Amino acid sequence: MNNRLFETFRETIDSLPTEGVLKAIAVEWRKLEEDLAQGRTLPSQDTDSILTFCRFLVGAACGALVWPRTIPIEHWTFYVRTVARLVAAEELPHNVKEDIEAAFHDIFCCIMA
């Protein structure tokens, strides 16, 4: 299941109307943490990435930005696009888009160096 977990998460979030994304993220966060605790899902790079993004969005919606730089590079495009979508719909403040783009730029520059 883990090898498809991120793709399923991405497809689900992409298919939702913007106003439902933050609620779905909060539900997915709780569900994934419960699945990990109960052993129904094994820890992986995908589970860590999804949990990090969930924490980031929930924190950003409350005005607290925490963005660990341990996200797989192939996930960043989806995360940046999702944040841009939420900012455009005024579900998140504009500075969140700037912050995630800056974090992505920093990571990309480190990889390319």
Keywords:
113 residues; mainly alpha
How is this structure best summarized?
The protein is an all-alpha fold and 113 residues long. Helix content is 77%, strand content 0%.
Helix amount, in percent? over 70%
- The average pLDDT score comes to 84
Uncertain residue segments? none
Termini Cα gap = 34 Å
Tally of individual domains = 1
Shape: globular
Q: How many strands, which pairing sense, and closed or not: the largest β-sheet?
A: none
Helical segment count: 5
Q: Label the structural class.
A: mainly alpha
Element pattern in H and E: HHHHH
The rounded Rg comes to 14 Å
**Strand residues, percent:** under 5%
The tally of beta strands, per DSSP, is 0
Describe the protein:
By secondary structure, the protein is mainly α. It has one domain (2-112). It contains 5 helices and no strands. Helix 1 runs parallel beside helix 3 (45-61) and helix 4 (73-88) packs antiparallel against helix 5.
Give the secondary structure arrangement, pairings included.
Layout: H1 2-15, H2 18-38, H3 45-61, H4 73-88, H5 94-112
Helix pairs in contact: 1-3, 2-3, 4-5
